[in-house]
Write a structure and sequence with these properties.
CATH class of the largest domain: Alpha Beta
Number of domains: 2
CATH superfamily of the largest domain: Crotonobetainyl-coa:carnitine coa-transferase, domain 1
Helix content: 25-40%
Number of helices: 17
Number of strands: 13
Largest sheet: 6 strands, parallel
Shape: elongated
Distance between the termini: 28 Å
């Protein structure tokens, strides 16, 4: 396993932080998830629930070990400091000031373990004028300009329908940790990684920010189902559902051939990208009229593929099981949980030739690994562990 031997101290909850350690667990890292008594990660209560077990929690926390502590007790702080000494990476996504109050901010943690790589994920970063503010995914989407460019052309802003800011910042932190570990191998020094959800989203603007300097007055806005500057790029009504067609200048002649409309290729309204975009209110109905000549979406897509025009059906996550791509690539995966049974979740998105097999992992019960972590990792005696459990420092649950 690629990350075998790497120990991660996981102070994360909900989605952005658990995304980081979820990916690392799939690559063989040892993840010690520190949960707060009495209920642990709040996502343990998020839908969908079966027999009190959350599918949301299980998806984000498979392969991790749960250590549940009553953090109000001084013995818990000693345990956490001992774990910092024994860890390679610390990941946290708490609110502003939480790690500082616990003496686990990077300046403090690095004194305990100078080789430690620590990553903090927050809405606005740990420095800057908004570092004091708490934020969640939709807050970051709003502040980063995503909502402004998403939704109907003349309608109100829409959020993206997935946890884009949470998962995006988690993946950014995951990649940063990998390079920080590489740097540590060369220098022996750990370092601190400050990952902002807003920064991660704002980095995804491929041309909207350029318009400030180069747009000649153009301002990005909501474009609805069709790209404002390049055409035809958009969502088109097919014989059965909706199809996305993306024909840049190189594919434009191919689309004309597929439509059996050679006259459109050199029509001054459509021959170049700029005029096509300005005249797409005339072009797009021609494309949708052509699509009605097919008996099915599959038939239309086969024609587009024959002429090498990029296209795809608009697939509902619910319908992903109907498409063999998701199964053959492992993009849709069936996993087994001792309480939930078999259920489907997104698969591991990375492919490594040196790690062709994906491990079978299970999400922990609350405090399930208290004894293992304190005994095997920290070397505490059984009597000491029993005393900590008896005094309420260690907590266990059945979900």
């Amino acid at each position: 396993m690629i990350l075998e031997g790497i120990r991660v101290l996981d102070f994360t909850q909900y989605l952005s932080g658990p995304t980081v350690t979820r990916l690392m667990a799939e690559m063989g890292a040892e993840i010690i998830k520190v949960e707060h008594a009495p209920t642990g990660d709040p996502s343990r209560g998020l839908p969908f629930l079966k027999n009190g077990r959350s599918g949301y929690f299980v998806q984000q926390n498979r392969g991790k070990q749960s250590l549940c502590l009553d953090l109000s007790k001084p013995e818990s702080k000693e345990i956490l400091f001992d774990l910092v000494k024994e860890s390679d990476v610390l990941v946290e996504n708490y609110g502003p000031g939480v790690m500082e109050r616990r003496g686990l901010d990077y300046p403090s943690a690095s004194k305990i373990n100078p080789r430690l790589v620590m990553a903090s994920i927050s809405a606005f970063g740990r420095t800057g004028p908004l570092a004091h503010r708490t934020g969640y995914d939709w807050i970051a989407q709003a502040y980063a300009g995503f909502m402004h460019v998403t939704g109907p052309r003349d309608g109100k802003p829409h959020p993206v329908g997935v946890g884009m800011a949470d998962v995006g910042s988690g993946v950014h932190a995951f990649s940063a940790i990998g390079f920080a570990l590489f740097h540590r191998e060369r220098t022996g020094r750990g370092q601190y990684l400050d990952i902002s959800m807003v920064d991660s989203l704002f980095h995804m603007h491929e041309l909207n920010v350029q318009s400030i300097s180069l747009g000649d007055g153009w301002k990005p806005g909501r474009v609805g189902s069709n790209h404002e500057l390049v055409a035809p790029i958009g969502v088109f009504k097919g014989p059965e559902g909706y199809l996305v067609i993306m024909a840049l200048q190189l594919q434009w002649p191919n689309l004309c051939k597929a439509m059996n409309r050679p006259d459109l290729e050199h029509d001054p309204r459509f021959s170049e990208s700029g005029p096509r975009a300005k005249n797409q209110d005339e072009l797009n109905p021609l494309i949708e009229a052509w699509l009605t000549t097919f008996s099915s979406d599959a038939e239309a897509l086969a024609c587009l593929e024959e002429y090498r025009v990029p296209s795809a059906p608009v697939i509902s996550p619910y319908d992903a099981t109907k498409y063999e791509y998701f199964e053959k690539r492992g993009t849709l995966r069936t996993v087994q949980d001792p309480i939930l049974g078999d259920f489907m979740m997104p698969g591991f998105p990375l492919r490594f030739s040196e790690q062709p097999e994906i491990p079978e992992l299970t999400a922990p019960l609350l405090g399930e690994h208290n004894q293992r972590v304190l005994g095997e990792v920290l070397g505490y005696s059984s009597a000491r562990i029993e005393a900590l459990a008896g005094s309420g420092v260690l907590i266990k649950g059945d979900r």
